[in-house]
Amino acid sequence: MSFFEAVDPKFNQFVMGNAPVKQLASGFDWTEGPVWFGDANCLLFSDIPNNRIMRWTPNVGISTYREPSNFANGHTRDRQGRLISCEHGGRRVTRTELDGTTTVVADRYDGKRLNSPNDVVVKSDGSIWFTDPHYGIMTNYEGFRSEQEQPCYLYRVDPASGEISAMVTDANCPNGLAFSPDESKLYMADTGRMFQDDPTHIRVFDVLENGSLSGGDVFHVVSPGVSDGFRFDTDGNLWTSAADGVHCISPNGQLLGKILVPEVVSNICFGGRGKHVLFITATTSLYSIALNRQGAQTP
Ligand code: MG
């Protein structure tokens, strides 16, 4: 069987014929939020409905990193290497300090509680950017069903003051997000409501000198499925989740090819020795594949 589907012949240089899609672990209910810790040689990811963060270690396997996790979803690391987590249950973004305690980064905006922070990235200036759709409060499956107090925005947390600013306010359900490798652009997926068909696209914003955003045009429409999460390689190609696997999108928005995964993919991240391994959270399982590319995300 083939693990790939090239749409543009260029894609064949990105993958290796002898590198399989591997199922590293399974038995979860809905996985998201992979984040690589090269210093600890492990990957953390969320098993959201089971209220836990899992840890996968090469040649060792699976263990539980944190349980309960406040129904954590997306994760990243800040410039000091600390874990930054979106929590549906806590309706907040937290930072795990080096001594293991947690600090609340954001839990309110405009005097009201956040919805259910979903995905997060950290810019090189230390600012923390996260999306806040309402998925985690719509049902009791991935959090606690409760009242929505906010529209679904994309926020920025100032690294010096801690002030929270709404940066994108015209999205339906902002979800995955990432900066281009040079941080001149911010990409944001809009995945629509849970119980009806709505956008399945990724938008692109210009990041201005003063830190504000402009633009917001549709960059790429994902099909089948949605772009729940994505990351860039060092050449500016965007690797996104989709219903049939991972799609590789060129810097100008064209689908170059697919990695075929037997379960619906939620999120991805690069990791491993040379950031050349793509880790894939997909429904009940964690997968990986070695690529002839290098992840751009830091650290
Ligand atoms: Mg997400």
Topology:
Layout: E1 4-6, E2 22-26, E3 31-37, E4 42-47, E5 52-57, E6 61-66, E7 72-77, E8 83-87, E9 92-96, E10 102-106, E11 108-109, E12 112-113, E13 120-122, E14 128-131, E15 154-157, E16 164-168, E17 174-179, E18 185-190, E19 201-207, E20 213-221, E21 230-232, E22 238-242, E23 245-249, E24 255-260, E25 265-271, E26 277-282, E27 285-290
Antiparallel strand pairs: 1-24, 2-27, 3-4, 4-5, 5-6, 7-8, 8-9, 9-10, 11-12, 13-14, 14-15, 15-16, 17-18, 18-19, 19-20, 21-22, 22-23, 23-24, 25-26, 26-27
Bound molecules: magnesium ion
CATH superfamily: TolB, C-terminal domain
CATH fold title: Neuraminidase
Secondary-structure content class:
mainly beta
Fraction of residues in H or I helices: under 10%
Element pattern in H and E: EEEEEEEEEEEEEEEEEEEEEEEEEEE
Question: What's the CATH C level?
Answer: Mainly Beta
**Quaternary assembly:** single chain
Strand adjacency order, main sheet: 1-24-23-22-21
Determine the mean pLDDT: 95
User: What does the overall shape look like?
Assistant: globular
Radius of gyration: 18 Å
Q: Report the sheet-strand fraction.
A: over 45%
Number of helices: 0
